[in-house]
Amino acid sequence: MKILIAEDDAVSRLALESTLIRWGYQVVTASDGRAAWDALRQEDGPRLALLDWMMPDLDGLELCRRARACPELASAYLVLLTAKGGTENLVAGLEAGADDYLVKPVDRPQLRARLRVGERILGLQQALTDRVREVNEALNSVKQLQGLLPICAYCKKIRDDRNYWQQLESYITEHSEVRFSHGICPDCMGRVMQQLSPAAQEPPGQGEAGD
Amino acid sequence: MEGDAALVCQLIRLFLTSGPRLGRSVAEALAAGDADGVRQAAHTLKGSASCLCATGVAAAALRVEAAAEAGDLREAAGAHSLLDGELQCLLPRLRDLAAELAGEGLTTSPDEPGRAS
Question: Do the Cβ atoms of A155 and A169 come closer than 8 Å?
Fold first, then answer.
């Protein structure tokens, strides 16, 4: 998984980078907040990030705020790294939009465990996103009539959402993938034959004429 | 660092470049009366030193940072003297260690005392 390290201190950055590479991450580094912001905004940029709080120009807190205001980064998993301990700072970090908060010097087993939590959350989000897309695609491809249709008891027209009475055939065509093959049923055929030829006594057989 | 000599060597070399530069940044910001500049440089130096377990430098840098954050540049200047002393002790030891790890002939100059923070 791709991960961003935003840390202005070169020594700390290298130490973290080598650790994360050993753990199998694909590491992207940034030495200041602006470079970190650019990396996060890349189309294929990291969605898991370790952000130092105190950096020149754009600090980790501001990066979190910006990311949460950006729809593409709303689901990124952001971990603030800071020497600032204490409840007040932790709350400020989380309220700025960080998902997690680690106090330096970083305890490696704890860092590893928390990154795994981040990976799990990102995995679940991705699975959910994929599922929603699949459902939307399915809905787009399936038109299914459901619910209550107001129908005229005599002429069998359907009243649509705009309060127009439509022929049953045109209504169903409009609201489903159904297409009609036209024919004539024996009863109707009998009536038609009687109208055309009053002398005719017998209705035709069960055959159906297609169009 | 988990026993990775090459990485330790790399980190030390990085600190040998960035540590003195950050120390100078603190001094320059102090001379300019720039409390925020002092705080920022001291903060970064503290982080670097912590990575190398250089607790003396890290503690001194923390004192400078805290004083600058409080806007007390006089206190920061006093703490900076301590920081400078700690750095001067640390750097030659790190050079020796880097040379030892790399199997190179880098040596500490005779006037530099060898004491790690």
Answer: no
Interatomic CA distance for residues A159 and B7, integer angstroms: 77
pLDDT tens digits, one per residue of A13-64:
999 999 999 999 999 999 999 999 999 999 999 999 999 999 888 999 999 9
H helix runs in A87-161, sequence order: 87-96, 108-141
Measured CA distances, B34 to A56, A180, B47, B80 (Å) = 14, 83, 20, 14
Query: In A, which residues are within 8 Å of B47 by CB distance?
Result: 9, 11-12, 83, 104
The sheet carrying A48-52 orders its strands as: A26-30, A2-6, A48-52, A77-82, A100-103
Torsion of CA A110, A116, A122, A127, to 10 degrees: -150
Measured distance between the N- and C-terminal CA atoms of chain A, rounded to whole angstroms: 60
Instruction: Give the predicted TM-score (pTM) of the model.
Output: 0.70
- Taking an 8 Å cut-off on Cβ atoms, the answer to whether A83 and B43 are in contact is yes
Listed in sequence order, the residues at least 6 apart from A72 whose beta carbon sits closer than 8 Å to its beta carbon are: A41
Residues in A touching B15 (Cβ below 8 Å)? 11
State both tokens at A65: 């705020």
CA of residue B86 relative to chain centroid, distance: 7
Q: Find out whether B36 and B65 touch, Cβ atoms under 8 Å.
A: no
